[in-house]
Design a protein that fits this description.
heterodimer, A: elongated, disordered N terminus, B: disordered N terminus
């Protein structure tokens, strides 16, 4: 497995280098993006372009593992900035994902009815906090 | 419903002391800054409502804010952009990226009740992340704050399947505190409200730039240079966007402005060099590249610029202006 990965990475680097050398690059090659300037300004680490390509591929795989369609995962990663890719890559598992309001088993149900009633939580629309 | 409510209250009476001793609900009372000047009541009733499907409050809340800004999109179309099936929810970062994909700016809300209600009072609904549960039993949820009433001490939300959820301010703050008061408003690139911080705006604008939404990025940087004419980074962004849109003269002018404000900024000299090379003004481009190289000799991007532009012809056309004096001769 590690051998397989390293070959993949090697190929990715080779391919990226080949792509960078192609004449079909956009007209603004050599221009430094405002995002990069802003990151340097704020003292954030200046990511190397190739590293970020690999990271994007990695994140794409992670999203697909979490049930995102492969094509969608590609587009989703493409709409992230380098800094965002770095953050998600490192912390995808622990970041909160908003969405779950309904699922709750009985014990949790009771706990939340109580905490709702004292105004600490706001799970059930039919429970209003006691004044 | 009423029965459930009564039941809940009896239970609550029984357990209230224990819970309070455990400290899980004890927070100081919610008060507004004394200096705050807010209308006593506001509600953005025109805000559309998209009832969420199971777990999909992210797409629903997002669709609400996008439609407010004139993007006709329903939650269904946003599911492939932000929903994570295995996590049964949506990540904050991807919510922001989805706004960017529409060519709009997601600007973080000031993390205070005053900041939040101020946005609503100014006509801007706010997408918020709440933890409706507890830190140990999180129930993450996105909703849209569309109104408040200071007298009755409540906020009004488009939330889940409820078009108009009225929540006491104290309860809302408990749930919002747990997300470290995370939220954002969605703005059009040419609509820069007075309370926005330069870094937040420029960060969002650079996100549009990175996605290749050049006309929108140009508009956002343009708005920034008008609001903060002394902010070199705003001019830098405007130069980049103008260049990408084929406006060489506009790009040159904007980058010269950035350099005038920060003469020792190697990145601005670097970009000016590329713009001048394209004009074409090879002599001026070479001078700009050499200045960038003197200011930041170790930076890889700038070394590449020197390699490609350092050997340009020493003769400019008639309508090429000299570059400003380099701070390192």
């Amino acid at each position: 497995m590690p051998a397989f990965l390293s070959i993949r990475k090697y190929l990715a680097v080779l391919l990226s280098v080949a792509l960078l050398g192609l004449p079909a690059l956009p007209a603004h090659a050599g221009m430094i993006g405002t995002g990069q300037a802003l990151a340097a300004e704020q003292g954030r680490i200046d990511r190397e372009r190739l590293a970020s390509l690999l990271e994007r591929e990695d994140l794409q795989r992670q999203l697909a593992t979490l049930g995102v369609d492969a094509q969608d995962a590609k587009q989703r990663v493409a709409s992230l900035t380098d800094a965002e890719v770095g953050k998600l890559n490192q912390r995808l598992a622990e970041l909160p994902a908003g969405g779950d309001v309904l699922g709750a088993i009985l014990l949790i149900f009771i706990v939340f009815v109580i905490t709702d009633a004292i105004g600490a939580t706001d799970i059930f629309p039919f429970v209003h906090p006691v004044r | 419903m009423v029965k459930g409510l009564c039941h809940a209250r009896r239970l609550a009476g029984f357990f209230l002391l224990t819970a309070l001793l455990a400290g899980c609900a004890h927070r100081p009372p919610v008060t507004l800054d004394p200096g705050t000047r807010l209308p006593p009541q506001a509600e953005l009733s025109d805000t559309p409502f998209f009832p969420q499907e199971r777990y999909q409050c992210g797409p629903a809340a997002l669709a609400t804010l996008l439609n407010v800004r004139g993007v006709k999109i329903d939650p269904e179309a946003l599911v492939p952009q932000v929903y994570l099936p295995a996590r049964e929810g949506s990540l904050q970062t991807e919510m922001i990226a989805a706004v960017r994909r529409q060519g709009l700016l997601a600007i973080p809300v000031e993390p205070s009740l005053d900041g939040l209600l101020g946005e609503v009072a100014a006509g801007r609904p706010v997408l918020v992340l709440q933890n409706l549960g507890l830190d140990v039993l999180p129930r993450w949820h996105y909703a849209v704050v569309i109104g408040y009433d200071l007298e009755r001490r409540h906020v009004v939300l488009r939330s889940g399947t409820e078009a108009r959820r009225v929540t006491p301010v104290g309860v809302f703050m408990n749930t919002w505190n747990r997300s470290k008061r995370w939220g954002f408003v969605v703005l059009a690139p040419d609509d820069l409200p007075p309370n926005v911080e330069p870094d937040a705006w420029l960060e969002a604008a650079s996100g549009l730039e990175a996605l290749g939404h050049w006309p929108q990025a140009h508009a956002a940087y343009g708005a920034a240079t008008r609001r903060w004419p002394d902010h070199a980074l705003a001019w830098f962004g405007l130069g980049n966007a103008a260049y990408a849109l084929g406006d060489g003269a506009g790009a040159e002018q904007a980058l010269r402005q950035a350099i005038q404000l920060r003469p020792d900024w190697a990145l601005a000299w670097n970009n000016l060099a590329h713009v001048l090379a394209q004009r074409p003004c090879p002599r001026a481009a070479r001078a700009a590249a050499q200045c960038a190289g003197r200011l930041a000799p170790d930076q890889a991007d700038i070394r590449r610029t020197l390699d490609s532009l350092g050997g340009l012809s020493a003769v400019d056309g008639a309508d090429c202006a000299n570059v400003p004096a380099c701070p390192l001769p």
